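User: Here's a chain of 257 residues. Predict its fold as tokens.
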Amino acid sequence: MAQPAAGMQLTLLGGAETVDEHRLGDLYAYPDALTRCWVRSNFIASIDGAATAEGKSGGLGAAGDRVLFALMRQLADVIVVGAGTVRVENYGGAQMSVGARQARQARGQAEVPPIAIVTGTGALERDMKVFTHSEVVPLVLTSATALESTRTRLGAAAEVIDCSTSDKTAVDVAMVLAALADRGHLRVLTEGGPRLHGSFIEAKLLDELCLTVAPVLVGGHAPRITTGLAPVQTDLRRAHLLADDDGYLYARYVRTA
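Assistant: Prediction complete.
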């Protein structure tokens, strides 16, 4: 048997502590007294790294993942998502229980967080569920070249915002965060897709990743949780790791610097 490296220490996880609803809220709370946007991403992946099953991330989930999905939405000021994910997952507006609304009011948040859709082309239709089934007006974060046509097409169904810099055909994620901060949305949750996630990572604007690992193998050519133009290494530390009886793991990682 090979000898372990000198000084190496491994820890067997899986203590007996049961995490109740109150404790769960503490584990996923955003930092206090934020003065800038704190960007949290929430993804699910199979053991072999697939971000979808049969084309949708929802195909990997189970009860525990849905509980955390709802909790992270309840804690966020805004939910940022790419237009492709809105289409594939058939997004509607966020839904909040009475208890969640009361907790949000106590934290000084609006009762329901808006969906903020990132799209360089503005190619969204007014009859999409995200516009027709939402208590609050969604934000559309688009490019300068698509701004006026998108505003004309969507009308009062959305607040359309220019988030370009020098490239007037593209959305700059730093400008996305600036626009959100201007509206008081500092607790940012992004749910994908992989390209938008990669943009935050490449710009070094992702503060934490919440990752559910589903106890399945998918194989094939399913996407990862991140795609981008170039590899960018971001060092993270594990904040916590939870598990359930269904075999799912729930990890929260926070950027080290």
